[in-house]
Amino acid sequence: MIYDYGICSWGIAPADFNNDGWIDFVVAVNYSLYLKLNNHAPDCFDHCSGIYIGEIPYLPFVIGPKPPSAAIAPIDYNNDGKMDFLCGSFDALYLFMNQGNCTFKKFFVCEFEGVPAEEKGSIKFWQRMSGCYRESLDHSALSVLDFNGDGYQDIVSGGIQGYLRLFINNKAFITLTNPEWGRIYIFGEKGDWLVHPICKTLMWNVTLVIGNITVRAEGLEPLDRVEFYLDGRLVKVDNSPPYEWEWGVERSLFKKHVIDAVAYRLNGEYGGKYSIKVWKIL
Q: How much is the average pLDDT of 228-242?
C-alpha cells in the first residue's frame, strides 16, 4: 500500500511530472490534488500523502456541498516537455500547467452545460456550449491523445449524462482572467456570485459590464505580446505582463461587444486567441 488517505481517491494521472525519467502520479483525493513523486526505491513511493497541489476547483455558483470527485489525465498541452494535467470537476474542465519544481498553475478551460442536437460532435478546446441544463462531470473519464495528427494532444471526455465529447487542442496559449464569462461587473467590481445564474439565463451566456473595466489576459507560457481587439478593432498591444487594457465608459447605453485577446509566442509564432462576448452599459 502506498498511502491510506482515509477517504475516496477519485482519479489518478500517471506521468513523469519532474522529468527525472521515473513515472510519478497526481491523485484526486476528495476535495484535494496531490503529487506523488517516484523515489526510485524498490517500492517506488514514500508512504506519505505527497505534495499538496491545491483544491479541486469548482465553479463559483455550485450550491450546496461540493461533489467530492474529479477525473484527471496527464497532458503536455503546449509541447514544452513538461507534463501538465487536466482536471474535470463537477461540470467544468481545468488545465494545470507545469511550472517546474513540482508546482502547477491552474487555468479554466470550459464549462459543460448540455449539448443541443446541432452541437453534438467535435468542439473547440476553449469553446463554451449553450444549453438549458448542466452536464455533470461527476464520475467521468478523460482520455488524452493526438486524435487529429497535428502534433498536439486532444481530449475525449465522458459525463454522467452519457455524452461523449472530443476537444480539439487549438494551440491557444492565452486566457482572459478579467472579465470572466457569465459574470456581472459594476465599474470594475465583480458582482456577487449569486448574480451569476441570473446573468447566465437572461444574458445568453455572456458577461454584463456596467461602466469601465480593466480587461486582463494571462499567458499559459511566457509570451512576446498580447493584442486586444474590440469588435475586430485593435485597441491595445501589451508587451509585458500583466497584459491589460483599460476599457472606459462609452456613449452607447446598451450594446453587445466581442473582446479578443490574441497571443504571440516568444518565437514570434501566433499563440491563439481567447474571445468573450460582453454586453456593456455605459
A: 96
Where do you find CATH 2.60.40.10 in the chain?
Answer: 175-280
Q: Tell me the pLDDT tens digit for each residue of 168-217.
A: 898 889 999 999 877 889 998 887 554 555 554 454 456 889 999 999 99
**Alpha-carbon Rg for the chain in angstroms:** 20
Residues composing the chain: 282
177: its cell numbers: 482572467
Give 232's DSSP letter. T
List residues bridging with 124 in a β-sheet.
168
Q: Tens of pLDDT along 117-135?
A: 444 333 333 333 333 334 4
Start-to-end CA distance of the chain, whole Å, equals 61
Give 243's strand partners: 217
CATH code of 175-280, in short, is 2.60.40.10
- CA–CA distance, 5 with 48 (Å, rounded to integer): 9
Per-residue cell: 137: 462531470
Per-residue pLDDT of 205-226, as tens digits, reads: 568 899 999 999 999 989 999 9
CA atoms within 13 A on the CB side of 165: 33
